[in-house]
Amino acid sequence: GQDVATFSKQADQMRTxxxxxxxxxxxxxxxxxxLRLYGVTEDSYDGExxxxxxxxxxxxxxxxxxxxxNAKVLGAILFERTMRAEVDGKPTAQALWDDRGIVPFLKxxxxxxxxxxxxxxxxxxxxxxxxxxxxxxFGIFGTKERSVIHEANAAGIKAxxxxxxxxxxxxxxxGLVPILEPEVDIHSTTKAEAETILKAEIATQLDQLAEGQDxxxxxxxxTEDGLYN
Length: 229
Prior knowledge:
Number of helices: 8
Mean pLDDT: 95
Oligomer: single chain
Low-confidence stretches: none
Radius of gyration: 18 Å
């Protein structure tokens, strides 16, 4: 797992640093499009393994680019396959932290359920404990997990937040820090109302955390300025 000194340095950077978290975690489904935008067309690789090799080369170029340092980028979210791969001969998470000063995160959700009660919950995540153990061994600091709120449906929003925090507790138990992401659809016609409900549900869950149980929140920019301040 993580050594304590490194973990506390990374926690400090995430708490006090200024900058972005880079999303390097697109999964198989969106990869052909990402490669295409990057100038690598489908006819230039053959099969899934070759496709993943191309996207990993792209990610490696990003990670080793001179500007990709913690002066601008605090953390980076990796796809499982990227975590198991190497950049410049080192496991990706280690290359990020040792060479670029960027805190490594792992995307752990397996996508979204169909819409119900105005929201999309996360699909079940089989083998999550094993994955988290493996992530800790690779030196991953935290995780990211996304669900989506489409409407101001109180029951749906409550369920989304409860599921986010429940998974967050599993992540904390593994010694990692979760980024909880209950996204609100920016096109929702009841966005402001949904955010008021969301804020209350998050506050309720945060109140139940013990001292030292730290979570991060990735929230859609709210309709009402300063709502979450």
